[in-house]
Amino acid sequence: MISGVRAVFCAVVFGRLGLLHFEVDAPRIAIEAALCVVLMVVSLWVMARARSARATPRLLVGSVAIDALGCFLALFVNVVIPWPGYDGILRVPDAAAILVVAMAAGFRLSPTAAAVGAALHAAGAATLVGVDLTRNADLVAYRAPTVVLFAILVLSAIALALVMSTQVRRLVQLAAKEHVSAESAKMSLWHVLEGNHEMRSALSAVALETELFLRAAQRSDDRDDLVRVGGDLRAELARLNELVVGMRERAYAELAAMQGAAHVGVRAVADEVVSRARARFPEVAVELRGGEEDVRVVVAGGATSLDRVLSNLVTNACEGDGRARPSRVTVDVERAERDRVRIVVRDDGPGFSPEVLAASLDARGPSTKADGSGLGLFLVRAIASATGGSLARRNADGGGAEVVVELPGAPR
Questions:
Q1: Which of 105, 277, 288, 301 could be 305's S-S partner, Cβ–Cβ 3.0 to 4.6 Å?
Q2: For 44-58, how does the pLDDT look when each residue is reduced to its tens digit (9 = 90+)?
């Protein structure tokens, strides 16, 4: 958008140059006309890259630099080649272009671009005034108070650009995050509706199988048919239970994300999770390492969500693939770079299957167990990502599975 405005502005200026007296101002008009053409071409190129989704942070900085350089050169020509009656660069309306272009840098919503623009505009304004006062000392009609006022205006425009680039960017990012959360909640509601439809189908199947089971039970000579119908009934009940668990887990993940983030001490929650795992899986050695008392994280849903995340990971590790269980599970809590906390759950079991490792974590994937729902890692990732965290899984070098959860660290 700004590149489009720049192109239109240059076209207007180019048209205005034809109204000047070419015989008197030929050199200045020729230079400014060439500058306008170059800026229009560059602006159209930037617009084309932005519209084709090839805009990058480097392009934003380059666009700001083009603004600053073009504005400086257009004004510098007037300083170097003054027209008859010229009384100083600060005495003409064109100097206000520095203020407008400096503020425009903030609309990129890039603090880096705004900072680059601020430095270039400050240097350009100082150079213009310095050269003007030196080269055209006998022409300028402004004095120190005007220079101070102009400096205040330029610095105010730069400050406004920096504020816009940081605060407005933060608001835009917050709105985008809320939009993503709303879309995620919408998709989860659709999944709930789909699950409801599947549950109704499963309930209908259970009712039918129950009726067949009762009929077969009344015929004492039809034992094979009774066993078959009983097996079908058990399979439908297991499917129904899986659907209920899946709907519950999806709803929990969405509610955790909607509740907002809270600061939670990792050690207390991890101790409780490990204690429950030791009682439930006495044949597995579950060990908690690291996690000093002052290690805190930011997690959506607070302590309940962190408990859910750790319980899911530790329980999955202790269960293995449903056929072979590990003999040892470790939970490591450690500080990572960039003020983050890393929680690593390792086991010496059979590890992840290739299907699980190849599956995306953005949706329900294949389960690590034959009778699993495939929702565990998906829901852990949903809770972690709600506050800027991440999840990764892999097979350890020495065998077994390894899941790494990173969460933002909270102040001590």
A1: 301
A2: 888 888 877 666 778
